[in-house]
Structure formats: C-alpha cells, structure tokens
Design goal:
alpha/beta, 47% helix, binds acetoacetyl-coenzyme A
C-alpha cells in the first residue's frame, strides 16, 4: 500500500516504526490516516522480522484528535455508515506489542490511539486530554473506557467532563504512561524500550500481550485460566526449550520464534 499520511520504516533490530505525518494539522487523524495506520500495523504483524512496533508523531503532536473538519457536516446516519472507529478495533487485535512515543498533543482520538497501544513513553512536553466536550461531543474511540481503566473514575470523569489537558508528569502519576523522558530523546527512548521487548522470545511476547489485555474483558477466574493455558502452550515452542537450556548452560538464548 502507498502511504500518504504516515511514514513507515523498515524494521531494524526487530522494531517496525510508524510515524503519523500530517504536521500542518497537528497529525489530526482523518479516515485515510487511520486506514494507513491499520494497514501498516497489519503488515508488521505479518512480518516475522518485526517483534515490536513504535508509533509516534512529532515533537509538537502525537495527534490532536480525530479530524474535526471531516466530521463537521456529518449526521448520525453518515457517522454510523462510516463506522470509522470500528477500524480502530483492528489496532487492539494487533498481536505484537505497540509502544506509543508521545510528545506534544495527544488529544481526543490521539489520546485514544495512544491508549490503544500497549505502553506509552511520553516526552516531558506531552499533553493528554479528551477535549471532545468542548466541541459538543464525547470520546468515541475508547476514551471513556480505557482512560477510566488507566487512571480511575475520578480523574477520567474530570478529563472527559472538563476537557482539561493533563501534563506528562500528571499522566505518569496517574498510571497512564510508562515513563517521562526529555523531549529531545523521546523517540530514541521509545525505540530503546521497543528493542528490549524485541529481544525477548517472540511467541511468549505475543502471548503476554494477549493475556494482559484479556484482564480488561474477563473475570479474574477466566483471566487466570486464560493465562495458565497460554503458559502451558509455550511449552510446545522451541524457544521454551532454548530459553530454559540457555539459563542452565549460563549463556544467552538464541530465539527462533518457533
Ligand atoms: N482536526 C482537524 N484539524 C485540527 C485538529 C483536529 N482535531 N487539531 C488541530 N487541527 C488543525 C487546526 O485547525 C489548524 O489548522 P489551520 O492552520 O488550517 O487552521 C492546525 O491544526 C494547527 O492548530 P491550531 O492553530 O489550533 O494550533 P494551536 O497550537 O493554537 O492549538 C490545539 C492546538 C489546542 C491542539 C488545538 O488545535 C485544538 O484544540 N485542536 C482540537 C483538539 C480536539 O478537540 N480534539 C478532539 C477531536 S474529536 C475526536 O477526537 C473524537 C474521538 O473521540 C475520536
């Protein structure tokens, strides 16, 4: 697929990189951009040389939300026909871990996109928010659900009801992001984290992601059963043998992804 709204970098050290590239509109997520992000994630998911993915924008904006200009004249029927957020669901089912490197604005759909990723590395100038209330609507791509799970009811209510942006430090204290790093190295720090993840056993990595996400949609009992089955399943991989033998032989494992 030819990309016009994103830049995709060929995998290096097991990490595939996607950059949202609409700087003139603070990386507003129009339909084309989301189609391209989903397609690029699909390609990386199918590529066995990719073990982790980084998604980022630029220093000023990860993404300032869904593209408001594309939605202004739409009515309910038109929005339902577009069903644009259904496409976002495909991001949730990406098997490989995705790290969002966020600097500047991550607002509305931008915040929701970052939360769809598995970890967030934030620059010290990152700002997170769900300002849809200021334009007469509300979050539509998981903001009321994922934000609440990440930061708790009190702060999620405040963010979605007032549209207030929170700083990177506040996001860190609230548990929304993994770490806050200086802006001039935010991408490099995310890449380093991605390379660390990419250096682990690939099948185990995917099953860990799957099991952690399962905790959002299952009872504790159901989730524990799911986890246990994934754990047992890994004993049919060559990498389980390799990992445990390497430990016993005091050497580094050589993962095969099988
Ligand atoms: N959609 C379309 N265009 C956007 C945009 C968006 N979400 N956010 C910014 N832009 C555009 C602006 O229109 C402007 O374009 P022009 O130069 O052509 O006028 C350009 O990006 C730069 O923006 P500003 O001049 O506004 O920059 P600023 O630094 O003064 O303000 C900002 C930055 C506070 C982020 C402000 O742009 C803003 O409030 N943006 C909208 C944020 C928002 O409401 N996001 C939620 C969208 S709805 C949504 O996401 C629904 C959902 O749940 C998925």
């Amino acid at each position: 697929m030819e990309y016009t709204c994103i830049l995709v970098t060929k995998p290096i050290d097991g990490v595939g990189v996607i950059q949202i590239n609409r700087p003139a509109v603070l990386n507003a997520l129009n339909l084309q951009t989301m189609t391209e992000i989903v397609a690029a994630l699909g390609e990386f998911d199918a590529d066995t040389t990719v073990r982790c993915i980084v998604l980022y924008g630029n220093e000023k904006a990860f993404a300032a939300g869904a593209d408001i200009k594309e939605m202004t004249g739409a009515d309910t029927v038109e929005m339902m026909k577009r069903d644009q957020f259904a496409k976002w669901e495909k991001i949730r089912t990406t098997k490989k871990p995705i790290i969002a490197a966020v600097s500047g604005f991550a607002l509305g759909g931008g915040c929701e996109l970052a939360m769809l990723c598995d970890m967030i590395v934030a620059s010290d100038t990152a700002k997170f928010g769900q300002p849809e209330i200021n334009i007469g609507v509300m979050p539509g791509a998981g903001g009321t659900q994922r934000l609440t799970r990440a930061v708790g009811k009190a702060l999620a209510m405040e963010i979605a009801l007032t549209g207030r942006m929170i700083s990177a430090q506040e996001a860190l204290s609230a548990g929304l992001v993994n770490r806050v790093v200086p802006t001039n190295v935010f991408f490099e720090e995310a890449l380093a984290l991605a390379k660390e993840v990419a250096s682990k056993a690939p099948i185990a990595t995917m099953l860990v992601k799957e099991a952690v996400l399962k905790s959002f949609s299952s009872t504790l009992e159901g989730g524990l059963e799911f986890e246990r089955k994934n754990f047992y399943m890994l004993f049919s991989t060559e990498d389980q043998k390799e990992g445990m033998e390497a430990f016993v032989e005091k050497r580094k494992p050589n993962w095969k992804g099988r």
